[in-house]
Amino acid sequence: MSKIEKLIARFKTKPKDFSYNELVTMLKNFDYKQIQGAGSRVVFTNEKTEHKIKLHKPHPGNILKRYQLDLIEDELKKRKLL
User: What is the pLDDT of residue 1?
Assistant: First the structure.
């Protein structure tokens, strides 16, 4: 199992310690690019499909909240990436 496959499997379990950096790596694998918005806002855009995932960077830490993991999972499932 490759690193990215392990990361995706880890994401699917929705761990309480899934980091923003892990998310960036995972979405990069699905051809999403990070675009910085205002403040802590970010948009991940897939240029091929023009699909966007919008969220706020976690702060003060680097760990994503459960609702963010749910949102990302829903968006990726809609696109049949998970």
Answer: 82
Q: Reply yes or no: is the peptide bond before residue 60 cis, omega within 30 of 0.
A: yes
Taking CA atoms, 61 is separated from 5, 42, 49, in Å, by: 25, 16, 31
Tokens 């855009």 sit on residue: 45
CA-nearest of 42, 41, 80, 57 to 33 is 42
CA–CA dist 48, 34 (Å, integer): 14
| Whole-number Å distance between alpha carbons of 39 and 31 | 24
Residue 54 confidence (pLDDT): 95
For the whole model, what pTM was predicted? Answer: 0.90
Task: Map out the domains of the chain with their CATH numbers.
Answer: 3-78 (3.30.920.30)
